Structures are given as C-alpha cells and as structure tokens.
C-alpha cells in the first residue's frame, strides 16, 4: 500500500492502477473532495491536521478487517493533511474484488471506518480567510 497520509495531492490514476487486478471483476473507487459549503457558510479551503502515526496504524487495521470480512484482491486508502482548496481530493478508498458486491461493501466499510476512527481534525476556512474548527465525533 502506498503512503496513507499525504501532504501531496492524491493521484487517483495511480491509485486505480495499484488496485487493478486481472482476477477482479469489480473495482470501486471512492474519493471525497473539499466542497465550497460548510456547516456555517461558504468555504474556500479545509485544513486537515492528523496524528499521522496513529492514523496510519488505524488505516492498516481497517485494511486488515476488510481483508478478513471480504474476499478482496487489493485495497488502497489515503487521506490528505494540510490546507486543501475547494475541489481537491481529501480522501480516497479503492478496492478490487472478484465480485462487485464485495468491492462495494468493502469500500463502504473502509470509508465509514476512516470517518469514524481516524485522529483527524478539520478546520473550515471561510472566504475572508477566517477559520473555524469543525466539531467531529469521538473516535472509536
């Protein structure tokens, strides 16, 4: 698996090429992007701060669970850190499996687990450059 937490933009074509597998009948790629609207209005950017060592350890655990529950061929997950502009990819999960149902289920599980359990903090930056931290959920 490639580096899971990245300060550099996530390369979707690179991710797809790494999960492609001739024994896979289905490949699902989910990517989340920074949108221009937040909980309290317009957003020009998001800042992600991550406890990198713990986040990467948790992502490896998520991958292990995915491999135990579904017969997947390959799994790739990555999340950005730093300041991202509207439209930039913040997270990607890609899964290939012999059958499409397994690929869909495994990728859905992985992205939901990332959202629930990564030690990650998000700050919305408004159009005037002011930031506000987004209240999240307690991690598992």
Overall tally of structural domains = 1
* Named CATH architecture: Alpha-Beta Complex
Shape: elongated
End-to-end distance: 23 Å
Summarize the structure.
The chain is an alpha+beta fold and about 140 residues long.
Describe it for me?
The protein is an alpha+beta fold. The chain has one domain: Aldehyde Oxidoreductase, domain 3. Helix content is 31%, strand content 36%. The protein contains 3 helices and 10 strands. The chain has helices spanning 12-19, 52-69, 100-117, and strands at residues 5-6, 26-33, 37-38, 41-42, 45-50, 72-80, 82-85, 89-97, 120-125, 131-133. The strands form 3 sheets. A 4-stranded mixed beta sheet has the order 1-6-8-2, sandwiched between helices. It has a 4-stranded antiparallel beta sheet with strand order 7-5-9-10, with no helix packed on it. Strands 3-4 form a two-stranded antiparallel sheet. A hairpin with a 5-residue loop joins strand 9 and strand 10. Helix 2 runs antiparallel to helix 3. The two termini are 23 Å apart. The model has no long low-confidence stretch (mean pLDDT 91).
């Amino acid at each position: 698996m490639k580096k899971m937490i990245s300060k550099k933009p996530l390369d979707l074509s690179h991710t797809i090429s790494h999960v492609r597998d001739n024994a896979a009948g289905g490949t699902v790629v989910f990517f989340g992007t920074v949108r221009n609207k937040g909980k309290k209005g317009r957003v020009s950017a998001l800042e992600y701060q991550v406890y990198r060592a713990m986040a990467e350890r948790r992502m490896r655990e998520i991958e292990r669970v995915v491999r135990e529950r579904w017969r997947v061929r390959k799994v790739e997950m990555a999340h950005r850190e730093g300041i991202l502009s509207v439209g930039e990819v913040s997270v990607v999960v890609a899964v290939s499996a012999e059958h499409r149902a397994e690929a869909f289920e495994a990728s859905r599980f992985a992205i939901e687990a990332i959202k629930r359990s990564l030690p990650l903090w998000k700050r919305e930056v408004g159009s005037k450059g002011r930031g506000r931290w987004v209240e999240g959920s307690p991690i598992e």
